[in-house]
Amino acid sequence: MAFEIAVSCNRGRVRRKNEDVVAIGSRLIRDDAKTSRVEFPDGRFLIAVADGVGGAPGGDHASKIVAGQMLSQLEALEVGLSPESLADAARSVALQVNTDLIKKSWLRTGGAGMSTTYTAVFGYEGGLFCLHAGDSRLYRYDQEGLRQLTRDHTLREQLGDPTIPGNIIVNCFGSEEQFYLDFFRLDPLSPDSDLLLLCSDGLSDMLGDSGIAATFAERGADLGSTVHECVTAANEAGGTDNISVALLQAAPE
Predict the structure, then answer these.
(1) Residue (of 188, 197, 190, 193) closest to 149 by Cα position
(2) What are phi and psi of 132, to 5 degrees?
(3) Integer CA distances (angstroms), 160 to 71, 148, 157, in order
C-alpha cells in the first residue's frame, strides 16, 4: 500500500490552545502541517483525527493519549483476522483504551473527566476500515461528489432533531456509559481521483459539506495546497474551534 497524505492541525482563531491531534502512523501532529508519500509494505497503517472535547479539562491530553494507545494496540493485532474478527478486536481495543482514559482522567482531574473524539482510517492486510467515536468525520470525495461516511454521535443526530445544538456529544472516548465504536469497511480508492477526508468539527462546522465540496472542486494536484485552502477557509469563516484536516489518496504503483 502507498498513499499520498497531507495533514494540518491548526489552533484556529479563537481557542487559546489546540486540543486536536492528527496521527500518521507513529507520528502525532499538533500545530503543524505535513505532506508526504507513505508506503506500507505489510498493508497495515493508521491515520486518525482526535479532537479533545472542549468544556472539560484535559482535552489536549485525552486526544494525545487515545491517538497513541489506539495506534500501539492496533499495530499489535495478530495477522490473518477475518473482517468480523477484526471488527471485534478493534472494538475490544477501543474499550480497553476508553477504560484506561477514564482511569487517567480520575487521576488528572479528580473526577471532572476528560474526553476526545476519534475517527481513523485503518489499513489491514490490503483492506481499508473506518473506526469512529464522536463527531469528527470521515468523508469520501469521488466522481459522485462529497459524501459523509460516518455518523455524528451527537444528541441532534441520535434524536433526529435539528433544533438541538450540534455540539452535544453522546459517545466518545471518555464516555463512562454505553461507549461504542463504529467499525466498517471502506471501498477501495482509485489512484489520483478518490480522496478520503478526515476532519474535526472545526472544519465541518465552519464550512459545511457544500463549502468543503467547493474547495475540493477547485483543487489542484497538490494535496498539501488543498489542505491549506481548507484550513484557510475555515479560519476566514470564523475559526472558532481547532481545525484538523487529513487528506488521503492512493498513490499510483
Answers:
(1) 197
(2) -150, 130
(3) 33, 16, 5
Burial of residue 217 (number of CB atoms within 10 Å: 0-12, 13-18, 19+):
exposed
Provide the percentage of residues in the chain whose pLDDT is more than 70.
Answer: 96
Dihedral of the CA atoms 134, 72, 226, 125 (nearest 10)? -100
What are the extents of the domains in the chain?
2-250
The CA–CA distances, whole Å, from 60 to 27, 66, 152, 166 equal 16, 10, 21, 21
By the 8 A CB rule, do 199 and 245 touch? Answer: yes
Q: Which CATH number fits domain 2-250: 3.50.50.60, 3.60.40.10, 1.20.1740.10, 3.40.50.150?
A: 3.60.40.10
d(CA 23, CA 54): 20
Name the one residue in this structure whose C-alpha cell is 502512523.
Answer: 25
Asked if 116 and 172 count as a contact pair (C-beta separation under 8 A), the reply is: yes
pLDDT digits (tens, 9 = 90+) for 116-129: 999 999 999 989 99
pLDDT of residue 221: 73
Kindly tell me the burial class for residue 112, based on how many C-beta atoms sit within 10 Å of its own C-beta (0-12, 13-18, 19 or more). exposed
* Residue 144: other Cβ atoms inside 10 A: 8
